[in-house]
Amino acid sequence: MAERAARRCCLGWDFSTQQVKVVAVDAELSVFYEDSVHFDRDLVEFGTQGGVHVHKDGLTVTSPVLMWVQALDIILEKMKASGFDFSQVLALSGAGQQHGSVYWKTGAGQVLTRLSPDLPLREQLQACFSISDCPVWMDSSTAAQCRQLEAAVGGARALSRLTGSRAYERFTGNQIAKIYQQNPEAYSHTERISLVSSFAASLFLGSYSPVDYSDGSGMNLLQIQDKVWSQACLGACAPRLEEKLGRPVPSCSVVGAISSYFVQRYGFPPGCKVVAFTGDNPASLAGMRLEEGDIAVSLGTSDTLFLWLQDPTPALEGHIFCNPVDPQHYMALLCFKNGSLLREKIRDESASGSWSEFSKALQSTEMGNGGNLGFYFDVMEITPEIIGRHRFSAENHEVSAFPRDVEIRAVIEGQFMAKKIHAEALGYRVMPKTKILATGGASHNRDMLQVLADVFGAPVYVIDTANSACVGSAYRAFHGLAAGTDVPFAEIVKLAPNPRLVATPTPGASQVYEALLQRYAMLEQRLLSQTRGPPE
Ligand SMILES: O=C(CO)[C@@H](O)[C@H](O)CF
């Protein structure tokens, strides 16, 4: 076999809900190696579905921490067997599913520093966790703890201003509070609490890695302006919590050199740097190379918006996180539950199940849809909390139905206007240099992207984000190599593949949607007041 040319590279890891994935990226920012281990398929003994266990109460959702540990053993052995040259790895970083938490048992830190290179990690860490089934982001069993936390700091809006989000069941502080309340012995035998991201970094480091600012923003514990733990939040969740969390660090920090375990067992160079791991969504923002004023719109089962913000306005909807690549800035995440499943329903009802019919309807109806507006929430929407289908005529009268073509445009315009209105509520503003990056299944429909460009008044690009969290982590590892030089992230990643322009705003679009957006916001408030009473 031809000798593999030496290829200096960085690794990007993603400890996600369903798998552990890795990519190797060379100095030209080309991905030349990728691999993954799927929990359900490759670690059957843990019996997960979609990487998790949904408990009988239907609310508690956990994943076995030793499954994550063993997945790393397997993927490294697969890389070794494939002949991957670990000696070329200059640095590595990674991502973890956000909000999940790992509970290291007293004494585990000593075990981490003394791993034998002759044995796999799973065997040596077997007894290192005080909680074996870790709460993950799909858990919604901590409503009581959320209310307690909001009460402790002066309400939902006060907590949002402090930590970037109101209390959410999946957020780590509330999960820790539940464990302290329901399993105080396990909590007392816990010397360190990690996020999934900092847990993974700890494995590579051979010691406890700190939580980074960006993923730490998903805990309802970190003051996102001062970047320190909120004493009020810590105190409301559990005692002696700060000593178990350690001090948070900037996401671009080099947290140390790789553990000798990996040098001796796999051949990593002793100087291989470990750059702080972060959450999967912040890592994806890095992988998509978002810059100030850009938006990424993931059009999937649920639609997710990633925003780059300089001056955030925390709200009762959405999440503000510290920015993973610029410590002075922020990012925001907005989730819209009624995404592709809703679009597919309307396609079946109003376009005979055909996307080409759906597109023809968008092509044959005018921007602004003659003033007709629709809200389509077949499941309880997250942003905002409304359910049902609500259609309004140009005179703001609620009507029971629209003609087929009008219905189709009303769905798409409504979904995209909601995105712009709630993005602006978080402090986002379209800038002259704004790019909208569209990803996910629906981003293959050019006519939908034309509506997106028209509603936002900005050009829409498509970008391959299949491995965005991994690739973003490898990019952040390269950025870590330049630590201390003040080289901006954008400079480090300028050689990466560029997104492809797909749609630009139709002339006159901003005039049409400026008025429509105001009506949409007013009608949304009307629906909200009908369902939940006057706003806070
Ligand atoms: O809860 C989420 C973000 O707030 C999810 O996107 C998880 O990060 C998925 F792992």
From TrEMBL:
Residues 133-287 form the Carbohydrate kinase FGGY N-terminal domain. It is an enzyme of class 2 (transferase). It holds the Pfam family FGGY_N. SUPFAM superfamilies: Actin-like ATPase domain. Residues 296-479 form the Carbohydrate kinase FGGY C-terminal domain. The keyword rRNA-binding does not apply. Keywords: ATP-binding, Carbohydrate metabolism, Kinase, Nucleotide-binding, Transferase, Xylose metabolism. Its EC number is 2.7.1.17. It catalyses: D-xylulose + ATP = D-xylulose 5-phosphate + ADP + H(+). GO terms for molecular function: kinase activity. Phosphorylates D-xylulose to produce D-xylulose 5-phosphate, a molecule that may play an important role in the regulation of glucose metabolism and lipogenesis. Belongs to the FGGY kinase family. PANTHER family: SUGAR KINASE, XYLULOSE KINASE. This is Xylulose kinase. It comes from Odocoileus virginianus (White-tailed deer). The lineage of its organism: Eukaryota, Metazoa, Chordata, Craniata, Vertebrata. The gene is XYLB.
